Structures are given as C-alpha cells and as structure tokens.
Amino acid sequence: MKEIGKALAWLAVAVMGACSLATIALRRGEPINALWLVAAAVCCYAIGYRFYSKFLATKVLLLDAQRATPAERLENGRDFVRTNKWVVFGHHFAAIAGPGPLVGPVLAAQFGYLPGTLWIVVGAVLGGCVQDFVTLVFSVRRDGKSMTEMAREEIGRMGGLVAYLAVLSILVVLLGVCALIVVNALKASPWGTFTIAMTIPIALLMGLYLRRLRPGKVLETSLMGFVLVLLAIWGGQWVSQTPAVGKYFTLAAPALSLLIIIYGFAASALPVWLLLAPRDYLSTFVKLGTMALLAIGIVGLRPTLHMPALTQFVDGTGPVFAGKVFPFAFITIACGAVSGFHSLIASGTTPKLIARETETRLVGYGAMLGESMVAVMAMIAACVLQPGVYFAINSPAGIVGAAPSAATATISNWGFSVTPQQMQDLATAVGEQTLFNRTGGAPAFAVGMANIFSSTLGGRELMAIWYHFAIMFEALFILTVLDAGTRVARFMLQDALAHVWKPLGRTSWYPSILGTSAVIVGAWGYFLWQGVKDPLGGINSLWPLFGIANQLLAIVALCVATTILVKMGKARCGWTTLLPLAWLVMVVFTASYHKVFDPNPRIGFLSHAQQLLSSPATAATARLVFNDRLDSVVTSVLVLMVGLILAESVLEWSRVLSGKKEARVKEAPFVATRFAVEEQG
Amino acid sequence: MRFVKKTRSGYMKAGMIAGVAIGRTLEVLRSVLREIFDESAYARFLERQAVPSSRQAYADFLHEGDAGRERRPRCC
C-alpha cells in the first residue's frame, strides 16, 4: 500500500513537471508567471535525482557503502577528513556556484526564456550532474586524485598533458572574461566602484582581525565584514551624490582594467591570510545569503516574465552576442547546465571529505542540481525585465548606437518598445548615470534582482540600494574567482616550470612567485584589455571563447569517465556519459568552427579580421586584427588538443572492447570500512 | 475530555518532533558554515597539535594551509 502511495506521489510530480514544461514551451503571446519555470525545474530535478541518479549509483557506478573512502583510510585531520554528507554538500555547492550560473543565463535570455531554461534543466539532469557525480566517484576511488592525474593514468600521457593545458587555458580565458564583466558593471559608476574598492580594506581589516584579535573566529569576522560592506553600499550613495568625491570613483573602462590587473597581481603575490582568504570568506557569506534571498524573493513574489519564450534572435542576429541558438545557447550557458570546471572541484577538495561512497550521489549529483536552480533564478531575473530595457542594457554601442535616442530607436524597431526617458528614469532609480551599453550580464541581472526585491521590501525607494547590493555581490565573488584562480594558475605554472629548473617550482621563493604571477596576470590581462577595447563590447567574442574552453574541459572529463566505465566492464552503461559527451562534442566543435571560420564578421574571428583589413585603416586596426587572429588560434589549439584526447579515448575503448588490451582500472584497492561493521555491531 | 487530552499530547508530540528536526537542521547548517569558513579545520588543527587557540596557533594553521599549497579553485 505504501509502495502504491509512493508511486502515485512520483506520478503526480511527473505530471506536474510535464504540465509546467508544456506551459513554458507552448504558451505564446502572453506573459507567464516565473513560478512555471521554478515548478518545471524542481519537478525535473526531483525525478532526475530520485530515479536517474539512483540508476547511476546502483547499476552503473555500483556504489558500495562497505568500501572505505580515502577520508577514512588516509584520515590526517587536514586534507582527508570524514565529514557529514550535508556539510560536504554545502562545501561543494559553495565551491561550484560562482558568477557563471548568474551571467550565462542572462546573456542567453536574448533568445527568449525557453531555449536557455530547457538547456539548464535538461543539460543539468542528463549532463552536468552526471559529469560531477562520476568524476567525484572516480576520484574517491583513486584517493582523491585530480582530473589531470586520472586523465594521464586512464587515457595516457597525451590525456594528462592535454587536460593540464586545457585547465590552464580555461583559467586564463575565464579570468579575463570575469574581469571584463566587473569592468563593464563598474565603468562610470562611482557608487559601484566605491563599494567594491571598499571591500579591499574591509578584507585586509578582516585578515588582521582574524590573525591578531580573534584567531579562528571566521564566522564572526565574516559577519562583521558583511556589516561593513553594507555600510560601504550606503556610503556609495553619498559618494555618487557628492561630485567632489564621486569624480575619483568615476572611472572609464581602461582605467578600471588597469586597477583590476594590479589587484590581481597583488592578490596572487600577497600572503593568503591577508587578502585572499578573508575575501573568500566574505564573498561566500554574501553569495549564500543572496542566493537564498533571491530564491525566497522569486517564490514569494511570483514575478511575471516579460521576455517572450522565443525572440527573433534565434536566427543568429542577436545584439548581445552573435550566433544561432544552436550551438551558441549551449556554450553561453555552461555553469548551471554542464560546466567542465566542476570536474576540477569534484576531483579536488571534495573527494577527500566524503565519509561513505554512497554519499557521492547527494554531493556530486545533488549540489549540481542546486547550481542549476541558481541558473534558473538568473534566467527569471533577466526575463522579468521589459525586453526593450533588457536589450538597451545588454547591447553594445557598436550595434545599437551610442546615443540614447539611436539605441532606443534601433531596439524599438526590433519590436521591443523602449524610450530614452524610460531608461533615464530607470538609471536614476538605481542611482546610475546611464544603463545603456552595460554589456556583460551583471548589470541586467542586478536590475532584474532589484526589480524583484523592490516590489516588496522598501519599494522603489530602495531600488538603488538593491541594485548596488546585487552589483557588489556579483563583483565581490567575481573578484574572488579572479584572485583564487590567478593563484591556482600560478601554482600550475610553477609545477610545470619546476621540470625546467627546480627553484621555479618553490612557492615560497619570491622571484618565482612574482615572475609566474606576472605571466598569469599578463595573460588574462591581455584578454581583458582586448575586451575593453573591442567596439562590440568584448562579450561578443570573449564569452563564447570562455564557453568553448569550459565545455572542452567537460569533454575531457567525460572522456575520462567513459574510459573508466569501459574498463570497469560497464560499456553497456557507457551511454550515460557518452550521451552528454556526444552532445558537447557536437555543440563545441560546431561553435568553434563558427567562431573561427564563419563568414559573418560578427561571428567569425577570421572574417572579422578580413573585414577590418578591407575597411579604411585606423590606429586600432592592426591591434584588432591581431586580437581576432589570436582568438582564432586559441580556439583552434584548444579544439585540436581536445580532439586528440577524444581520439585517444576512442582508441583506448576499442582496444579494451576488442580484447587487445586488458581492462584494468587504476583504483585504490578495496578496503572494508570499519564504520559499517561498528554500526552493524 | 479524554479526546482533548489525546489531541494535546498529539500536538505536543508533533511539536517535539518538529523541534528536534529544526534543531538538527540548524546544527547541520552551523556545521556547514563552520566547514566552509575553515573554523572546523582550525579546530582539528588545534586538536592535532594539542595546543590552545592563540595568535601563534592560528598563524601556524594558516602557514600549514599555505605551505601545503592549498589549491582551492572557485568555479565560474
């Protein structure tokens, strides 16, 4: 009887999910409520977790609660620590959820809410969660080995080398794009710039407070830092309204870029405790709180989506970024659906904390569902805006024109009504001078979020505070990604250089620290500078490059996972990883081809360079042409490297399946957990 | 009267179960935050080294993390 009740309950969830999906997919011509997106996502996640992840756990991966995890066998109280599954879940979620699931969906909203939402939900359930889950399980069974180590051991030396280069490249592109988003959000915004500038002394103060006054009291210190950040937001309003002070914080994009580059270098070279660690704590504190607040806001307020399900820009003529819905929607949204970067986290700190192998299901599959939900919320925040306003904020001046009247006329001609007065009123309401041409996704997300919150808490009066709170929250954790990422990339470079000359690998030797920091910061700084100087706003060329790099990393992770499944004798279940792998290969290779060779200069790097060369030369022509060629080389090299790893994986599968090679996985030997025996006893 | 009594005890039981569940949830939440914010890691360090919390102990804890080249990438 109980079983029948359960089956009926799951049937109800399935029917509700199907109805919600049908509503968001088929409703045309009238706005729908955001709760339909939430309901569709939650039902799909529930079914995906209950049935698909259970199938993966029991039939494919054969999770064994009796097998001791590295956290038990190698417990040292430092890296390897048996930890409560919910604690690991929170820890893992905090590490994987960054600015990506907020920015990608906002940019992809130019196609309408439908393509992005479907990709987020389906991509996560069948792709992203699977990747995170299997990577975590395989790392747990290999004493917490990293993705690059697993690639080298299971696929071959080429696999390891390509994985290493792919990780380093993605980090560099990612950091450049992240910095560009911050620059676009803060340019000509004294309020935002002041608030973010204040987070640096606040973090330094927190570092000193933690080290000198209250050692180890991080939660208390983070709370103190949060209060100070709120004061900085409040103070920012005064700064923006006081011209004598405001002029020092009203910076153009190039000046902001230089400051961020200097900041990145300093954060990478300074001791961790002084700046990096306190910022990380502060950013995580704000991030978790704000995501929870946004979820409560959306469910509580049930806002209406004004963006249509599909826009005419599915044909590739979109102003936010050029390219058709296939493949560009699927590389624009990486985090939230499938993100290769997660494989680094799932094979980093997390596997060393897992107490029971069976808990990897909740942590690996479940935490990714959480991130996917964050992406759905970001899509909602973008789509509650009037489409005209959304396009006015996200379109670069090179497409719609720099003058407000020209921009609004162009956007209105597309069928999305907006007026200069409407944009000016909105800018005044959020405490900005202008909201035109704020590409990058962060300002549009902040306006959407402020819109949702201001409909109850404080009304229109508090809209400026909410907007700057959202900008601060995004910029804060983007900068955290920037400083942590620069440091990780620096370590990777030092590891490689140690093979050339040992002292270069010493992380306490300052000449090496400064040199490698300069190389990494210089590399992402170049991409940032390129984006800032790009007449099309930078996002058009750099965000797809970032998406391609990220999804290529996912291809590497899924190649490793499929190879291990084949070697485990589970080739019949190989479709579970092959399905997302095949989809990503199709998407990423098509997108890369278009980004390099497409004859449309707004899409193809080479045709854009050709267009520049055939136009009257300006002072910037040579630099822009070089940038286009560099971007096409970076894309081609990344695709070539991943193509190699794919080919090597396929060869390995065929060798194992044809019996030419022994199917032997490089797992740590089975050791029975003593805790299961104790529990049974 | 008997019926009322039964209902009251039923409510009390439900209230107690809810109280325990909320208490457990808050405890887990606290543990999650302590882990994320490295307070638990510091507590384990103190236990491992058998030293009380102090400026020096915290400096050593931070140094250990740095020397161990703790690489914590934050995802995009």
Q: Averaged pLDDT of chain A, please?
A: 91
Straight-line N-to-C gap of chain B: 62 Å
The overall strand count of chain B is: 0
Number of self-contained structural domains of chain B: 2
Give the structural class of chain A: mainly alpha
Class of secondary structure makeup of chain B: mainly alpha
Specify the biggest β-sheet of chain B: none
Write out the CATH superfamily name of chain A: Amino acid/polyamine transporter I
User: Biggest interface and which pair forms it?
Assistant: A-B, 60 and 38 residues
**Number of helical regions of chain A:** 28
**Compute the gyration radius of chain B: what is it?**
22 Å
Q: Which CATH class of chain A?
A: Mainly Alpha
Query: pLDDT average of chain B, as an integer?
Result: 81
How many E strands of chain A? 2
Query: Order of SSEs of chain B, N→C?
Result: HHH
Q: Give the overall silhouette of chain A.
A: globular
Low-confidence stretches of chain B: none
Which strand-content bin applies to the residues of chain A? under 5%
Kindly report how far apart the N and C termini of chain A lie: 32 Å
Strands of the biggest beta sheet of chain A: in what spatial order?
Answer: 1-2
Explained architecture:
The complex is a heterodimer of chains A (681) and B (76). Chain A has helices spanning 2-26, 34-60, 70-73, 85-96, 100-108, 113-140, 147-154, 157-186, 190-213, 218-241, 243-249, 253-269, 276-301, 325-332, 342-346, 360-383, 387-394, 397-400, 404-413, 420-429, 442-454, 463-497, 510-533, 539-567, 575-597, 605-614, 621-657, 674-680; strands at residues 32-33, 304-305. Helices cover 72% and strands 1% of the residues of chain A. Chain A is built from 28 helices and two strands. The mean pLDDT of chain A is 91. Chain A is mainly alpha-helical and 681 residues long. A two-stranded antiparallel ribbon of chain A has the order 1-2. Chain A starts with a helix and ends with a helix. Chain B has 76 residues and is mainly alpha-helical. Chain B folds into two domains: 1-37; 38-71, no CATH class. Chain B is 78% helix and 0% strand. Chain B contains three helices and no strands. Chain B has helices at 2-36, 39-49, 55-67. The longest helix of chain B is centred in the first third of the chain and has 35 residues, at 2-36. The mean pLDDT of chain B is 81.
